[in-house]
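Supplementary notes (optional reading)

For those who missed the lab, this is the record we used. Protein: 4-hydroxythreonine-4-phosphate dehydrogenase. Length: 238 residues.
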Amino acid sequence: MHRGLARRKRDTKMAKPNLIVMLTHNDVTVKDAYDIFESCKDIDSVQHWGFKNVGLPKDEMKRIVQAMKKAGKTTYLEVVTYDEASCLEAAKTCIDCGFDTLMGTVYYESVHKYLNEHNMTYSPFVGKVSGSPSILEGTNEEIIQNAKDLIAKGITAFDILAYRHVIDGEKLARDFCAAIDAQVAVAGSISDYERIDTMFDIGPWGFTMGSALFTKNFVPDGSFKENLQAVANYMDKK
């Protein structure tokens, strides 16, 4: 998985953020995720793919991951369950299915230890996360401090639900990326070109996108692939 600072240095040209395509709608993996990936795998500029730990049986998850790896993609399992037992079970699923990175979960030392033992990258949520679709609570200062505390425990990457914040998602994303030297993925609700522009301005390592492609926010009469291609083309030209 790529490394680098999420902090935006205004006097230095930053690499563009990475797009992680999530085959999920309303925080649930879609039933036809395999077919959708197969239809889109030839979009070469889209390297990062993933889905949630809810919606599909493990054998189907494994089949999709194998297809993604065969196509040379980097893979992510984003976990949207929050108790320790289910987070640990999701970590085991992540290993069993052959993902590259586990994103999400409330941080637990047991999950961190298990993933370290299997050389798996861990990118947990920060702040108080709950619900499905997920919401994020806590002040900006509390969320930033949470990240700093986790960095002290050895965490080097974060999954932040900035636009699910109950107060001001954009300000949180800006404050967080300015304060935290880590690999930051802004997850959820990047749903239009304006927010893509904001991601380029703020400078996280990457961001996820899923539901906006299924609801055809970019090409209203187009397919999932046509919407994804529109986003990829837009990002490639920036």
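If you only remember one thing from this example: The two ends are 23 Å apart (CA to CA).
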